[in-house]
């Protein structure tokens, strides 16, 4: 309780409702725009209430798209995004849980060096050295491929760091009990460590899925074949209009479709999401 | 079942810190040994060297007649109960019990048999299919015991297995462990920092301090003839009064000792007693009361029946035989 | 079938038409399959192709706008000159069939054509006849001079017929390069760069400075609205929504304008000029793009590319493309075909571009421009124009920086090619 | 560090192999390339290459555009950080007062995290579109002539709003966690010590929140510096007149659009140094937090 | 200084759970009251209602002669010591002590005076300029006390202030608190779940169970005449033996009671004793030994001198006066 001031509580609710309105505004506007037809935008301002063209606009985008924007149908781009996001999430979890296991549970020569090689990448986003990374990936012949879309983004130490933290907080006694129970390293990894990291993996998965789905610059650069465009990277191409008006209703429908999967994931798995967020950052 | 022998056992951690030095101990088959001492004195280190979880830097450990220094924990034929139980949180109680046996390729039927026996002994049969998190502290403790029992090892090793329980449960579980060990007669080494637990459980106590053995003996031996001032103050509650002999120059026959020890219950109020104490505080414990006071600048505590008379100063007397004398420098017992 | 990648920058209506043309080619034979991909704006398409070339993933054909010519020409080893391609593949190719203005722009010093003309344009004025009428202006008389431009605009705004007088696409191409040619002012030395890599920019002359200063003044007064950098994506919407009464934009915007300006009557005119500048109006220069062939592809693709080029320059295809898009008819044959079809009579205004570009015989200042790194220099022009609009620089200062920064890039380009 | 470890020597290398391989190929090698290229001059097609020493770096220091970009980055990062952290803190404090509706409010506030920066950019770009946007329309009513296409200030406001908007949920979650980690007894003690709500906030809550605040400060600066690429590209593309040309955008732009590989590489090197500095600061903070 | 009165005090939490009901208590000026009871019995809730940190749903609280139900904590003239001390980690010890005074606009000189006095009383003068994290547990505890002292409030409220300390320190600090309160004579309410702490500190004990008062009285009253079986088993260690009267039908005069209670120290070994006990386990405590056994299916514990004789069965006797009789259903004391 501490004090009796109902006024303050009211103010708090007010602030929150206002906050939610501000946060929701752009998405509302986008959604509304996506339910109108092209002619509704000629008049000057965006309508504020939904129109009747929702089904029409969305189904058109999903299976036909706007061919003159150089993008394939949105359905195809969403599939690409999905493949990319899943590959990144699963790949990253797989390789980093192994390396974290090695770093935490073994002592071997050059362990420190290996550790630093990995951790130096912790905060080095791909954007920073975009040109040479592009060249390296191009040199490997990975342009226009799912491998090229995902593998370079798999390498980053965040997940390794997280698993390292998780393993470090696992009680020492667990390994000791397992050793007394006759389990070797891989058996321990499979029987104990992996099952115990399940929720961490799930939480990380949520975060990485969002991370992968939301990639922009990288897919923009390394895909020149429209069959590999992802939705987030493709949307910008649709928004650019030549000698005409952007197809606002279609662009916004695409924007809504691009937001839908990650937002749904966040809302449906809020607990895991928060856990993942907090863990990956700390 | 086996005897365990520690020969000149010592441990220096990689950093160079010596945690344990020169420990010699013969543990008979079926004996219940308790290692007791203050935090950081090396109890766990010692136990873990026996378990094989910590490498041995000096001396040797024998289990039965094998030197086990180089043998993997899994092959030492020991079982261990940890302070935090270290139950596998994702496995059911049954799987927890069976895991060690499964890894040793024990046949399924044999595993079931042993698990059921252990479950019966410990009365955990009704929650064999629960996960550890669905158990109370005491139940978890039992499962941890069960995991040790099913293995039918040569020795049990316990590292403060009760310290995560609340006071009441601790008392109850301590009785259970004692009974269980009596029944199974498995050689046991038990680590605790709680002197009461040590006293009540041990066949023999090993009092450690700073990585060295201060005294080995039965609980009563240790209580009655503490080998050092350290043991004297560590074992027994309320703790033994330790006073500088110079504070009581009028006490005959103590001048050669640096420190005089006397247990609070060995002091009695008597009109003609040689010690005059100013009373500072009185604590009622119910059955008795503790009177805290001061004499010649030294603090003193006495335990009195709860119906005894009190006043601001008390004259105290004692039996010469109940005095313990220690060397001022070394702390070693003199008489 | 051999696939041939063609990266282009034709979005919107033009893109749709382009795909139709390609389809025509693909269906006309069964050896080759041209695959067009839209890569965004001209600069985006060009840079994507260069990046792809470095990554050895280049398309066989890429559409490069006229100001990329300097860069492409210098990339010996990266390109296959079109005259050589045609010769190698044994496809007949007559340079003289193209309009002289086009030929002049894309030939090297030896008079050989390096890239394949496809879509050449020139900027013109589009205006909203309805607004003119509402403002009490003659809907059939577009402004001829900048003085009229200003005067008409004021009338339009004052009468409430629209909230802005005019906007424009391409600050660089229209209000700087074409403006200079139209007023017979040099952009750079060495015949606007045609003479060699040593050229320097001189676009900061008094005429250009005066014009930029006016644009700034008109922007402040609300007469003129800026439509953004590069092609000025925000300009057409202002014209379509009838916020602005006039727009200067590529003749090739015609298709888009017609498609979007459904609510009002359209008018066409030539670019305005300052009547106090001697020699104005001279002639406007071409823009648009040509098709470059990149090296390093399998031979069959080059054979296909040559066949495709032949198809593209046929009078029928060219006339169709020209008539639909508003691009110039790049061959005399296509022009003649149009006349034959009475296209120009039936579509008033469709000939304005051609008339404007051929208004006078080109001078050194009006036959075009060719500098290295000019794509980046265009970026600088946009930036400096924006600096001026935001008030951080005046017109002269802005143009001076264009020259200074541009010359650095030209020097850098020269250094890279030594 | 673990007390009990396994003794195998080969196994850990096998376990590390995939991660090490990817790190070498996609991080260390490109980083090395960046360093190498920062000393070279190359034409767009990569046909002519020559060694130019530190020319690319000195050219950067001489370039008003680069200095402008540094300044823009600083202003942008500060504004984004301040705006989103300020709003989030306000919301977090409000939620922290709630007893029951916390979850609902949280759900309604966290989802923008999932929106891609590029999409966030598109959304705000639409809202601020000069011809049909709702905001210019509203602003016009109060007499402000919105024009992010030619006004540097408006452009900066646009990218700051879009970037800050996306970051609100992130900061909000951490602030809420930070607030909840402050023992209730601390505020109760202060209440008994006679401090009212406002005093309590400034005397107790804010100082105790400072580890969270500091952490968020670094994270937000990193976000504003690197993750907002999509926002910039979808809205202003660095314009007008480079008013929103932040450093990462310039690296990309000069490298891919400007085709000036040497300069772009030199900028990459500078940025990498910056990132490493930030990483070190962050690690320092982690250490400090442990001590706290 | 002031008296505190609780009238029919009750608390229902918003969820609908009743945490405290119908508590009536008159606390005299200067009295030291201890609220004791098992976890969750409502001790903290009660204390926090007095402090004003929890709203009061029934009854009233008076401090001095003011009803304070609607008064802000800051204005109730009380000071509180929290279990985790709740020291402001970013302020020095001095600032921690001064904060409450500063908020009340006490003049600078007066603040300094009071802080110095408190520092002297608590011997924390030497680290007034340190931050709390640079202090040991005991020192922090003192600072928390100091923060209460400087305010010179009408009452001190303590919520388990010692439970974060280790066993040794807890005993020492408990003595200090007792002495301090004696000296300042400030009315105090102290919450603990540790019966020993409660016994040793209280002028009067309030034993709570499930939100209700089970007994109010001095420690010895409560120990000697527990008002209910609950109090009997809660207060005293080793706990009182509680046996079903049907298990000892031969015991005269107990048939009407459901439960018979007798403290372990009230049983003695006597050849002719009426109770025959099978010995199950013996625990050596040093000064005495606890013998655990069974009679008629009921567990029994007796405390014997450590030199007493032992055998497998013992005959026990007791003084009729030391029996406590309780009702089987209500648990209330019968005689
Ligand atoms: N892995 C290690 N590396 C270095 N020193 C260690 C390590 N483990 C323990 N020590 C040190 O060795 C000494 C003995 O530690 P040990 O854990 O055996 O004490 P303990 O008696 O079990 O204490 P506690 O009662 O607190 O568990 C301590 O001084 C401790 O700091
Ligand atoms: N904020 C609350 N909302 C609802 N119920 C509560 C709340 N706080 C406490 N309770 C409930 O009220 C009862 C009394 O709680 P209280 O904290 O007073 O117990 P306590 O005696 O202090 O226990 P402990 O010794 O564990 O601190 C408990 O059943 C508890 O679950
Ligand atoms: O829009 P276009 O195709 O006419 O081209 C315009 C300019 O020439 C580009 O440089
Ligand atoms: Mg230990
Ligand atoms: Mg409590």
UniProtKB/TrEMBL annotation, chain A:
Belongs to the binding-protein-dependent transport system permease family. InterPro entries: MetI-like, MetI-like_sf. Residues 78-269 form the ABC transmembrane type-1 domain. This is sn-glycerol-3-phosphate transport system permease protein UgpE. GO terms for biological process: transmembrane transport. The keyword Transmembrane applies. Part of the ABC transporter complex UgpBAEC involved in sn-glycerol-3-phosphate (G3P) import. Probably responsible for the translocation of the substrate across the membrane. The gene is ugpE. The keyword Aminoacyl-tRNA synthetase does not apply. The complex is composed of two ATP-binding proteins (UgpC), two transmembrane proteins (UgpA and UgpE) and a solute-binding protein (UgpB). It is found in: Cell inner membrane; Cell membrane. GO terms for cellular component: plasma membrane. It is a multi-pass membrane protein. The chain crosses the membrane at residues 12-33, 82-106, 113-131, 143-163, 192-213, 248-269. Keywords: Cell inner membrane, Cell membrane, Membrane, Transmembrane, Transmembrane helix, Transport.
UniProtKB/TrEMBL annotation, chains B, E:
One of its GO terms (biological process) is glycerophosphodiester transmembrane transport. Keywords: ATP-binding, Cell inner membrane, Cell membrane, Membrane, Nucleotide-binding, Sugar transport, Translocase, Transport. The keyword Cell membrane applies. Belongs to the ABC transporter superfamily. The keyword Manganese does not apply. This is Carbohydrate ABC transporter ATP-binding protein, CUT1 family. Transmembrane segments: none annotated. GO terms for molecular function: ABC-type transporter activity; ATP binding; ATP hydrolysis activity. InterPro entries: AAA+_ATPase, ABC_transporter-like_ATP-bd, ABC_transporter-like_CS, ABC_transpr_MalK-like, ABC_transpr_MalK/UgpC-like, Mo/tungstate-bd_C_term_dom, NA-bd_OB-fold, P-loop_NTPase. Residues 4-235 form the ABC transporter domain. One of its GO terms (cellular component) is ATP-binding cassette (ABC) transporter complex, substrate-binding subunit-containing.
Automatic annotation (TrEMBL), chain D:
Its main location: membrane. InterPro entries: MetI-like, MetI-like_sf, UgpAE/MalFG_permease. Keywords: Cell inner membrane, Cell membrane, Membrane, Transmembrane, Transmembrane helix, Transport. Gene3D superfamilies: MetI-like. GO terms for cellular component: plasma membrane. It is a multi-pass membrane protein. The chain crosses the membrane at residues 70-95, 107-127, 155-177, 208-226, 265-286. It is found in: Cell inner membrane; Cell membrane. Residues 70-282 form the ABC transmembrane type-1 domain. PANTHER family: BLL4140 PROTEIN (PTHR43227), SN-GLYCEROL-3-PHOSPHATE TRANSPORT SYSTEM PERMEASE PROTEIN UGPA (PTHR43227:SF9). The complex is composed of two ATP-binding proteins (UgpC), two transmembrane proteins (UgpA and UgpE) and a solute-binding protein (UgpB). Part of the ABC transporter complex UgpBAEC involved in sn-glycerol-3-phosphate (G3P) import. Probably responsible for the translocation of the substrate across the membrane. This is sn-glycerol-3-phosphate transport system permease protein UgpA. The lineage of its organism: Bacteria, Pseudomonadati, Pseudomonadota, Alphaproteobacteria, Rhodobacterales.
């Amino acid at each position: 309780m501490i004090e009796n001031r109902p006024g303050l509580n009211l103010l708090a609710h007010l602030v929150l409702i206002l906050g939610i309105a501000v946060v929701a505004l752009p998405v509302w506007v986008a959604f509304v725009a996506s339910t109108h037809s092209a002619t509704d935008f000629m008049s000057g301002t965006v309508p504020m209430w939904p129109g009747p063209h929702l089904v029409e606009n969305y189904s058109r985008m999903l299976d036909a798209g706007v061919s003159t924007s150089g993008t394939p149908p949105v359905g195809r781009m969403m599939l690409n995004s999905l493949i990319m996001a899943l590959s990144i999430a699963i790949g990253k979890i797989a390789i980093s849980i192994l390396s974290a296991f090695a770093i935490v549970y073994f002592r071997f020569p050059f362990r420190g060096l290996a550790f630093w090689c990995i951790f130096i990448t912790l905060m080095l986003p791909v954007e920073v050295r975009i040109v040479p990374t592009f060249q390296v990936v191009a040199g490997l012949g990975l342009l226009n491929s799912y491998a090229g879309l995902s593998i370079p983004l798999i390498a980053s130490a965040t997940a390794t760091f997280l698993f390292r933290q998780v393993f470090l907080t696992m009680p020492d006694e667990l390994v000791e009990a397992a050793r007394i129970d006759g389990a070797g390293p891989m058996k321990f990894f499979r029987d104990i460590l992996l099952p115990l990291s399940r929720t961490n993996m799930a939480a990380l998965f949520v975060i990485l899925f969002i991370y992968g789905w939301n990639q922009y610059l990288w897919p923009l650069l390394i895909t020149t074949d429209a069959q590999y465009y992802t939705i987030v990277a493709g949307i910008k191409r649709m928004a650019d209009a030549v000698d005409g008006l952007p197809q606002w209703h279609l662009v916004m429908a695409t924007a809504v479709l691009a937001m839908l999967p990650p937002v749904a994931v966040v809302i449906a798995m809020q607990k895991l999401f928060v856990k993942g967020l907090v863990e990956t950052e700390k | 079942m086996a005897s365990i022998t520690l020969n000149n056992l010592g441990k220096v951690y990689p950093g160079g810190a010596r945690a344990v030095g020169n420990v010699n101990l013969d543990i008979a088959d079926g004996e219940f040994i308790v290692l007791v001492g203050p935090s950081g004195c090396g109890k766990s280190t010692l136990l873990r060297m026996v378990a094989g979880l910590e490498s041995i830097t000096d001396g040797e450990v024998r289990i039965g007649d094998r030197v086990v220094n180089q043998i993997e924990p899994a092959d030492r034929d020991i079982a261990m109960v940890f302070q935090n139980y270290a139950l596998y949180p994702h496995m059911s109680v049954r799987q927890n019990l069976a895991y060690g046996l499964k890894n040793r390729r024990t046949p399924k039927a044999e595993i079931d048999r042993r698990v059921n026996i252990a479950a019966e002994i410990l009365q955990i049969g009704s929650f064999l299919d629960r996960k550890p998190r669905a158990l109370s502290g005491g139940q978890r403790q039992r499962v941890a015991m069960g995991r040790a029992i099913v293995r039918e090892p040569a020795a049990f090793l316990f590292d403060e297995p009760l310290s995560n329980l609340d006071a009441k449960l601790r008392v109850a579980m301590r009785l259970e462990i004692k009974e269980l060990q009596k029944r199974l007669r498995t050689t046991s080494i038990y680590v605790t920092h709680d002197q009461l637990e040590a006293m009540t459980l041990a066949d023999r106590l090993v009092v450690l301090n700073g990585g060295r053995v201060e005294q080995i003996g039965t609980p009563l031996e240790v209580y009655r003839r503490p080998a050092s001032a350290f043991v004297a103050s560590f074992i027994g509650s309320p703790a033994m009064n330790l006073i500088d002999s110079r504070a009581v120059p009028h006490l005959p026959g103590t001048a050669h000792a640096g420190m005089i020890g006397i247990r609070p219950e060995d002091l009695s109020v008597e009109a003609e007693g040689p010690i005059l104490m100013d009373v500072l505080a009185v604590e009622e414990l119910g059955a008795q009361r503790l009177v805290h006071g001061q004499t010649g600048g030294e603090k003193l505590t006495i335990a009195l029946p709860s119906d005894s008379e009190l006043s601001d100063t008390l004259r105290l007397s004692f039996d010469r035989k109940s005095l313990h004398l220690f060397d001022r420098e070394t702390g070693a017992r003199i008489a | 079938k051999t696939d041939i990648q063609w990266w282009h920058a034709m979005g919107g209506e033009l893109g749709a038409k382009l795909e139709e043309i390609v389809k025509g080619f693909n269906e006309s034979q069964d050896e080759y399959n041209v695959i067009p991909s839209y890569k965004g704006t001209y600069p985006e398409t060009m840079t994507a192709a260069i990046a792809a070339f470095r990554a050895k993933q280049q398309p066989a054909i890429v559409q490069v706008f006229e100001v990329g010519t300097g860069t492409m020409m210098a990339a010996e080893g990266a390109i296959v000159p079109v005259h050589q391609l045609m010769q190698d593949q044994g496809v007949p190719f007559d340079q003289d069939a193209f309009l002289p203005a086009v030929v002049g722009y894309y030939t090297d010093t030896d008079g050989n054509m390096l890239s394949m003309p496809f879509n050449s344009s020139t900027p013109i004025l589009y205006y909203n006849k309805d607004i003119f009428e509402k403002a009490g202006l003659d809907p059939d008389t577009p402004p001829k001079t900048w003085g009229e431009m200003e005067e008409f605009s004021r009338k339009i705004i004052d009468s409430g017929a629209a909230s802005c007088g005019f906007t424009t696409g391409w600050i660089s191409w229209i209000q700087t390069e074409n403006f200079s040619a139209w007023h017979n002012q040099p952009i750079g030395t060495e015949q606007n760069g045609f003479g060699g890599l040593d050229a320097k920019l001189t676009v900061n002359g008094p005429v250009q400075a005066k014009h930029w200063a006016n644009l700034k003044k008109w922007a402040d007064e609300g007469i003129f609205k800026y439509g953004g950098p590069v092609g000025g994506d925000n300009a057409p919407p202002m014209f379509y929504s009838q916020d602005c009464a006039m727009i200067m934009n590529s003749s090739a915007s015609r298709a888009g304008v017609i498609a979007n300006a459904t609510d009002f009557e359209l008018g066409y005119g030539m670019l305005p000029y300052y009547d106090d500048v001697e020699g104005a109006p001279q002639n406007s220069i071409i823009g648009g793009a040509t098709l470059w062939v990149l090296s390093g592809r399998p031979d069959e693709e080059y054979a296909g590319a040559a066949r495709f080029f032949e198809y593209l320059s046929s009078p029928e295809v060219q006339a169709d493309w020209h008539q639909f898009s508003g691009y110039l008819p790049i061959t005399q044959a296509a022009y003649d075909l149009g006349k034959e079809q009475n296209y120009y009579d039936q579509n008033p205004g469709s000939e304005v571009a051609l008339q404007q570009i051929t208004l006078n015989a080109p001078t050194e200042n009006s036959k075009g421009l060719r500098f290295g790194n000019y794509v980046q220099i265009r970026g600088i022009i946009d930036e400096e124009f924006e600096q001026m609009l935001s008030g951080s620089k005046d017109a002269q200062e802005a143009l001076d920086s264009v020259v200074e920064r541009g010359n650095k890039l030209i020097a850098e380009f020269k250094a890279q090619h030594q | 560090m673990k007390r009990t470890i396994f003794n195998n020597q080969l196994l850990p290398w096998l376990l590390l192999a995939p991660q090490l391989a990817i790190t070498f190929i996609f991080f260390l090698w490109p980083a090395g390339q960046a360093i190498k290229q920062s000393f070279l001059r190359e034409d767009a097609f990569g046909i002519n290459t020559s060694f130019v020493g530190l020319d690319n770096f000195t050219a950067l220091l001489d370039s008003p555009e680069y200095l402008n970009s540094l300044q823009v980055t600083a202003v942008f990062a500060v504004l984004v950080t301040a705006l989103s952290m300020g709003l989030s803190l306000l919301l977090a404090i409000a939620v922290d007062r709630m007893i029951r509706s916390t979850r609902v409010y949280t759900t309604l506030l966290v989802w923008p995290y999932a929106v891609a920066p590029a999409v966030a950019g598109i959304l705000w770009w639409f809202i601020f579109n000069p011809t049909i946007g709702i905001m210019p329309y509203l602003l016009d009513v109060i007499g402000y002539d919105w024009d992010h296409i030619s006004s540097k200030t408006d452009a900066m406001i646009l990218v700051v709003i879009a970037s800050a908007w996306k970051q609100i949920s992130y900061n909000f979650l951490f602030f809420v966690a930070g607030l909840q980690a402050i023992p209730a007894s601390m505020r109760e003690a202060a209440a008994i010590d006679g401090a009212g709500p406002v005093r309590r906030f400034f005397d107790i809550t804010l100082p105790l929140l400072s580890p969270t605040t500091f952490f968020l400060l670094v994270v937000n600066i990193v976000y504003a510096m690197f993750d907002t690429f999509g926002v910039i590209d979808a809205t202003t593309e660095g314009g007008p007149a480079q008013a929103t040309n932040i450093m990462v955008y310039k690296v990309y732009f000069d490298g891919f659009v400007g085709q000036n590989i040497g300069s772009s590489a030199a900028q990459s090197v500078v940025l990498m140094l910056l990132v490493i500095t930030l990483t070190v600061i962050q690690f320092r903070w982690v250490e400090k937090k442990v001590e706290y």
